[in-house]
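During the second year of the project, the team shifted from modelling isolated chains to modelling whole assemblies. The rationale, set out in the original proposal, was that interfaces cannot be judged from single-chain predictions alone. As a representative example for this report, we include one of the complexes processed in the last quarter. Its constituent sequences, exactly as entered into the pipeline, are reproduced here:
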Amino acid sequence: MKVPTILVPLDGSSRATVALPVARAFAELEGATLHIVHIGEATVPPSAVLEKLGLTPEQLRGCVLDQATGPPAARIVRLAGERGNVLIVLSTHTATDKPRGALGRVAEEVLCKAPCPVVLVQPERGVEPWLLRKILLPHDGTPTTAAAVSPAADLAIQAGAELLVLHVAEPGARRPTEPGTLVTPRYVDQPQHEWSSWAREFLERLAALGPCPAAVRLRLLLGTGEPGVEIVRAAEEHDCDLIVLGWHGQLAAEHASTLKTVIREAGFPLFALRVEP
Amino acid sequence: MNQAHARTQGHGITRSNLNDASMLAVAPTPDHAWILVEEGFDLAREHEIESLFTVANGYVGTRGSLFEGSPLSAPGTFIAGVFDVPPQSDLPELARAPNWLGLCAIVDGRALRLEAGEVLEHRRVLDLRQGILWREWRQRDPAGRVTRIRGMRLASLADRHVLLESVAFTPENYSGRIVLESRIDGAAAEYLLSPALSPVLDHTVPSVATPGTAPALPRTTVLSFRTPGSGVEIAFAIASAITRVGDASIVRAAEEAEDGTRHRWIVDMQIGQTYRFDRVVSVFTSRETERPADAAAAQLGRLFAGGGMDRIVAAHVSAWAERWRTADVEIDGDTAAQRALRFAIYHLIGAANPEDATVSVGARALTGDSYKGHVFWDTEIFMLPFYAFTHPPSARALLAYRYHTLPAARAKARALGYRGALYPWESAGTGAEVTPRFGSFPDGTVVEILTGAEEHHISADVAYAVWQYWQATGDDAFMLAAGAEIILETARFWASRGTLEADGRYHIRRVIGPDEYHESVDDNAYTNLMAQWNLERGAELAHLLETRWPERGRDIALAMSLTADESSEWQRLAEVMYTGFDPESGLYEQFAGYFELEDIDLAAYEPRTAPIDVLLGRERIQRSKVIKQADVLMAICLLWDRFPGAVREANFRYYEPRTSHGSSLSPAIHALVAARLGDGALAARYFSQAAEIDLANNMGSAAGGVHAAALGGLWQTAVFGFAGVRMREGGLVIAPQLPPGWHALRSMLQWRGQTLSVAVNGDPIRIEVQLEGEGSVPLALVEGPEAQIIPGRRYVNERTPDGWGRWQELAT
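Output from the structure prediction step:
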């Protein structure tokens, strides 16, 4: 993935600071510089910002403190755009009450408008150090979403983490019309042959489309049910530390139901990567 | 090029440059109903495209892989009957032979590949009529050089040991150096056959080509490989050459690898000039001859002495034309259905080898390695009718495989405590049972696989196929030499398999029927009905042998220790066979207790992308009436005339909504039965569903090979369903029922040494028939008059609202 800059927006609330250990871990993995971003009403001396954020100068070691003024989400997005190749790590919300959609206003706007991947951290996980040992990569079988494979594989290599691929068969779901889609086989003539062939094909396609380096060993899991629920369930069952999820960039009511469920239900960071058909 | 625009379809090759002087003396078929086109390049679908675009001839099949490879290429060449046992397994699987396709073209230091530079044009065309895979490609490399590449590949149907590829390169806007490296390697086999097929260089014949001069013999190399587990020797004799098109001069190979597996040519190409790389491979194995390398080399010598490349191609095209003459089914009014049907016929022709009586057709034929090349009931029940009615020698060879594996079937029966012959659910080279005992599922569970132990109906299926073949061909010689033993031994098996119980009925317990969702069931209707039929035919055949062929009958009886009492007992057991028939409802209960199971509304789970057993779980499915594929309906389909119309209808309407079609074998059979019942719209829907199994571009299930049984089912639906042809005692019966949108259907059938042309019109319903051969053929119409069809004359009948009219003879 090789991201030189990690942006972590903090507003001084305790809920925002949960992003910090995750952001630090990403910075270490990527060999990136961690930029702590504070958007205020006016530019103030750094010491005042640190005080507001509850950070000591020692805690800032190795980091850059960026200040900006204006609407927070728009400024974060603008900063990301100016920096180019970045990763934003932020808390899902900073208000005391959990928002109905599980995303605060700033996080939602950043997620939708940021020109880069966004890692969302749930306040519930607290500020414990974060280690990346196991990654869950849900995949719907379409070539478009295979764009999430390469970043996930890179992370797996950098962290020495295991990469689990999850495909969920959803009752009532229509087969995606995108050519080259591979979902669960409609026909299983002989399960002793079909499933091994299908699993091999699924992973080989992902590895080629990603692409995924041969050094990364992909393991395939199959779930059944509502995808968001199954993703969270599988991530918990397999002790995953991160979910890498491709999405189409639309959070309006009828869109991104899987992403919304994962944001709402998952207790661990979510790496959201916009994929374009 | 936008990869998302890549698609497989048939359409005219409107902008093709394939048909020019740079290729061999053959042009692609222009008719869109005869070609399958993959326009562009969609990396995600590459494994599927490789399967669909396989060239095969029943002896050898080569997947439609790109010669230069791609990030998702799985090139594969499979030779019928060549199995190997990988070290980590105890089960044989179809061996992946060394890849003979390797060709790397390096233009001024850059390899020509689809992912390097810009694809200006790319299409692959499967020419169903001629059995040729064409390729057209224009690539602009990162330096701006545009190279045009045209290729063709075939597996000769005229000489099944011959593979051929020709690739022409034209530098369109530059002159420069091209390095062509051809190679044969076993690398593709590594993950299947670990360690890979080990090359054992037998000998290399020095090239006799001379630089830049008149045509000479191409460079010839002979290589032998050995499968590591089974030790089958595979020999490739390879003749390759590069010629400059126009003056036909041969370019001398610059280098040759020490082991003979690589050759390198260096050519200074001139702008606009075309250079053609030709490669002919002769393949022999130690299955056919003790010295396969010598046989391959000798054959290659004969081929080039007899006319070389052009002659090879011409003979191949001619052989395909001859097969299509009797195998084609023409449809007016539905181009997609026409192409799907021809695609099915193409792969069926390429799957069987009439010259080898010791091999059969695996579930994915020679198009991929899924299902390990294992042979199932798919061959006898779904594919064999196509061969019996279009090319009887192929059908005969497939049945001969079952005769050659009869000792293994006897051994399996014996091992389980039965008599006679119990064919394996999965069969490979020897006919021993090779069904894996466990299956791993992606959810992590490991499940015991019971089909090898319990799916016994295959013995009756094989017997059924023998009888059908005999009825269709009148091939008494085969019946006496091989078929009779199969029918008698399977009848004997059924007589030992069940138990005559207190209710006076013969019960067959603990089996799996075609509906494999329900295991270890008692009195599966399909199994019992087919066993009953098998017992009856056994008794009938025993009587026939005694009366019509007493000498041969005595020999067989002696060899089998078969007595008249035993065959009489078969008839008696057939009469008291428990079938689960309820006269009140007209329904057959699929197995004992089926009617008590939970009814699940399958429609509530639509649309769905996964098999229903995945969505509901195995346990729930086993407690429910949901079935995987035609089971009772399969019996009705095969034994049609044994059931009254009301019974067929009642069972179809009962079981069809409960069938989840979790098997690729299911849609075509439902299409066939629906067509026979006159439900044209439903039949058309199932026909389309069956056609999409391999051809839809978002299924992915063809990656490991085409679904040969589904393709056979598609042919049966057209001929037995829509044209309504079926065999009945005394001759053929026809009851056409074309689906909506089909205006006409025309096919030819081989019937007892004669060729019957059948043309059916949809509206008004009209039948026209003509016979080639000697002697007349009785042809009956359902609810209509019978006619004696005499060779050389044309007969027509038309159906009005009042029913069928009289047969009329037309002037020819």
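The two ends of chain B are 54 Å apart (CA to CA). Chain B has 20 helices and 37 strands.
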